[in-house]
């Protein structure tokens, strides 16, 4: 699989401080990667380097085999910033039409794109009357112009309501399906958990995780939570036999390692006279993020 975006030991300094420290990351065509990290971890710096807005102090970045900031790289890359801004006096149709002409695709796709992002009814209103969410939708329409090879989305759901967030990720899926490599920087962990192929986590300028959610979970060996709903009068016995903790009077909770999970489930299955139901909650992305972003994470 060919990498559309290749980042090799990217290093950036601000004065004496390293804002990016030897970051290596690659995206293949059609891959959706979530870029996570606390504020100041280096996410925005990395995106600026990919866009060619600032220069590297070490390492190399290639967009479709070309240097960031080159004409070929600019044509191949689309960017949606968190605080998207447009000319307030233009209408949505005028603004998107301008971008379409600059992208060399003409006005033909403009109406369909405005419809796709839910702005058809507001297409001829001035952008100065748009809400933040509407401006974000217009920015997403700009990203869709010209079928970019790489799409960089910085907090793309900022200002969007829950339905609009779902629609945005459906559009991201469409971008990936057409072969666009999508890098999504986000703090909305529950959203990216199910809608990206891989998770990359930055901490103080260093890449501390870069893998699928399942692989990161296995490596972290975080416990799975089991909740056993007991039959009437059986909760105390189950808690005593398993070392679990009583919850809400009728349930018992306990944590088990990934290796012990199946043995525990078989154990409870054999207690069918006392157990009414079993709920299993594996580690979520929030748990993994806390694990990998902490100071002593390896």
TrEMBL record:
It holds the Pfam family ABC_tran. Residues 5-229 form the ABC transporter domain. Keywords: ATP-binding, Nucleotide-binding, Transport. InterPro entries: AAA+_ATPase, ABC_transporter-like_ATP-bd, ABC_transporter-like_CS, ABC_Transporter_VariousFunc, P-loop_NTPase. SMART domains: AAA. It comes from the Bacteria. One of its GO terms (molecular function) is ATP binding. Transmembrane segments: none annotated. This is Cu-processing system ATP-binding protein. It comes from Aliiruegeria haliotis. The lineage of its organism: Bacteria, Pseudomonadati, Pseudomonadota, Alphaproteobacteria, Rhodobacterales.
